[in-house]
């Protein structure tokens, strides 16, 4: 399991890296437990968290939402517990959901999965 969870890997940023690199937006954030990649959840239009798993094989994510500590294994489709990961363990508490605020369309609820 050492290649599946690296508690020392810092998160890659405060938001979904692929959405920020383009013009995307997200509902919630997920953090790869192996490398720290922060991607958007499966409710988000682009589902970059799942795409990261598909492209890297890193199977375990942790919620990157304030107050949430659960892990999820894409292989088993099961949520569970895991070790404490390197700080920070969530996006900033004052970051809106969905985000980034200036990119979220008015009809965002119609666009989520």
Query: SS-based structural class?
Result: alpha+beta
The CATH topology label is: Herpes Virus-1
Strand order of the largest sheet: 2-1-3-4-5
The biggest sheet amounts to: 5 strands, antiparallel
The radius of gyration computed from the alpha-carbon positions, rounded to a whole number of angstroms, is 13 Å
Query: How many E-type strands?
Result: 5
The number of domains? 1
CATH homology superfamily? Zinc/RING finger domain, C3HC4 (zinc finger)
Terminus-to-terminus distance: 31 Å
Please count the helical segments.
3
Note poorly predicted spans.
none
Q: Indicate the overall shape.
A: globular
Strand content: 15-25%
CATH class: Alpha Beta
Helix content: 10-25%
CATH architecture term: 2-Layer Sandwich
Q: Return the string of H and E elements.
A: HEEHEEEH
Oligomer: single chain
Averaging pLDDT over every residue, what do you get?
96
GO molecular function, one term: zinc ion binding
Domain UBP-type: 1-96
Protein name: UBP-type domain-containing protein
Pfam family, one: zf-UBP
Short overview:
The protein has 113 residues and is α+β, with helices and mostly antiparallel strands. It contains three helices and five strands; from the N terminus they run H-E-E-H-E-E-E-H.
């Amino acid at each position: 399991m050492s290649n599946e969870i690296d508690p020392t890997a810092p998160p890659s940023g405060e938001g979904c890296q692929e959405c920020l690199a383009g013009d995307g937006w997200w509902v919630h954030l997920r953090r790869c437990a192996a490398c720290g990649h922060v991607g958007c959840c499966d409710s988000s239009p682009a589902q970059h968290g799942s795409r990261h798993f598909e492209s890297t094989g890193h199977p375990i994510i942790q919620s990157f939402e304030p107050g949430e500590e659960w892990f999820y294994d894409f292989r088993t489709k099961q949520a569970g517990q895991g070790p404490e990961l390197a700080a920070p363990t969530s996006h900033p508490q004052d970051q809106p959901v969905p985000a980034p605020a200036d990119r979220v369309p008015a009809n965002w609820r119609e666009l989520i999965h």
